[in-house]
Every structure is written in structure tokens, then in C-alpha cells.
Amino acid sequence: MSELASALAQTLLDLTRIHSPTGEEKLIADFIEARLTRTLGPASVSRHGRNVVARIRRGTGAPRIAFAGHTDTVRTAHDGPPRIEGDRLFGAGASDMKSGLAVMIELGERLVRETAPVDLTLVFYASEEGPFAENALGPLLVELPELHEQELAICLEPSDNKLQLGCMGSVHATVAFTGRTSHSARPWQGENAIVKAASFLTDVGARAPRDVDLDGHLYREVIVPTTANGGRGRNIVPDRFELNVNFRFAPGRTPEQAVDELRAFVADRAEVDAHDLSPAGRPYANHPLVRRLIAAGVQSVETKQAWTDVARFDQIGVPAVNFGPGTQAQAHQRNEYTELPQLAVGFEVLRRFLSQP
Fold this sequence. Notes:
This protein is an alpha+beta fold. Helices cover 29% and strands 27% of the residues.
């Protein structure tokens, strides 16, 4: 294993050993702040609550680039402590997205020792895995106007070193069916709210994904029930049945427009209470810096069939894309792991991108 590969693996192992589920990111922010302050100098690092921002600026003329990564993980189950087995590193967040954080840290520390012009901002932020309104990147973008001046933002979400353009928007809604209780032995005296949901569920099941083409880039819109809750007892006809419905919509329209479409789809069959509205992000495939990143050796180019914080940067007028070394299929999995060789590959792609004239 090369010196770079060993350093990346050790940094990732250090990060995965720090428990940081959503809302509990203080310790990992402490670690990142202390390490980068030691290696980059205190003038280059600032702390903002559970967030850390580091700046590496040298020379003039370099494009203003931001790398962004969230420090929180989902609460996954693991059969052992963080560890390396062969070419895999196991641990909560190993894929999503502490692999990206490790590359950000190592790249920043190595760039500071080089001489080429660079204007790079590293943004480590909390609470991405929770609701849109609680994501700490939003307030950070308000607090730091300099982030609005970036020419490109790269979110290092796990993507197997593929460049993923844009992102889907997301709406969560409670779809509530109402009826009238009765004894289950005499159901004709009531109105079964669960049964009333049948036609809606049938329509959802029959609804094929809708393909949206944006300049040759395909996004697939879907409506998916994800949780269900209802009933008062096993011998009572239920008078209320609630579904959480997630509508993933393509770039090109607002969350409010997506809510209007969902309401029309539900029609008068149920009440719709929309919440956790997340905007979509545009692809920016033809942006000069995106073309430069592609030329730096990304594995392939595809669209992002999920939501990421590229949408937040898009909202403030900063072009953004997804590119990260994490093993995408392992995100949020039991015994989550990432393939270690991908870290060095992603590192080198980003170093070439930053060093291109």
C-alpha cells in the first residue's frame, strides 16, 4: 500500500471511530477542527457550531472551489468496531460519507505544502441525514457570504468516483384517509379508512416512473409510500389511516409545484399534509469547471437519482455536482463499508482537477 493510500485509510479509520449520528456531531467536529488547525494553521480554520470551515488560498487566478461534506451518519447496525479487512474498511459512515471527508482532509493538508495557485474552501457540516430544515449547511450558507462567491461546489457524497449531475427534489407528505369506527364484527356500521386507501395504493403501484430528459440527462420521477400507520385495535374498524408518501421530482420545477401534482394525484381520496420539501439541483453538465472535472478522470458521468446538497448551492447561484470515493451501494447499510482503493483514485482525480491550468 502506498503512503497516500495508507494515510487515507488511517484518516478514514479515525473518522469512523468517532460516533457521529445526526445531532451528535460535536466530537467529530472537534477532531476535524483540531487536526486542520494543526496542519493548516489557526488562521485557516473557523468553527461554526458543529460545523468546520477550512480555507487554502495561495496565489491569484485560481478558480474558487468548495468541497462540501456532511459529518453525520444514519444509525446503522454493525457487528463489530470500525476496522480494516483486506481492501474494505467497515464502520458507520465509511461510505456515506466519511470516505469523502477523509479525502477532503488529506487533500487540504497536502495542497498546503505545494506551490501551485489554489483557492479551495473545505466545508464540513452537520445534520444532512435529517429533515431539510434541520440541515446545518443552510444556516452556514447564510452566515458565510463567501460561500456564495464560489465558482463550483463539489459534494463528496459516495458515488464510486463517478460524476453525478444535479439531484432529484424530494417532497414528503402525510396522506391521511378518514373513515368511521365500528365493531369489526359489524363493519357495515363503520367506514374502513384502510380499505379507502386501496384505490390510491393501486394507482401508485400502477404508476410507472416518469422519465424527464434535461439536455440529454435522464431523471426518473417516482411516488413511493414509505410508512403506514392506522387502526385503534384489532377488533375495531379504523377511522384513520396515514401513509408517508415520498415524491422524488426532477430538476426544472419547485417543491411547491411537485406538491400540487401530488395533491392532484391523490384527488379527493385523502388529506395531503406536505412537509420536508427539498428542492432539486440542476445538472450544470456544460459548465467549464465541470468539464474540467470530467477531464481529470472521473469514472463516468451520470445523473443523481437522489437528493444531495448540490441543490442548496444551486439555490444560491453556485453550480454544484456530486463526486466522491465512497462505495455508493453501501450507504445506510448494515455493516457499512467502503472499498479502500477508491479513496486514492478519488483523491488523484480531485488533485488533477485542482492543478489544471
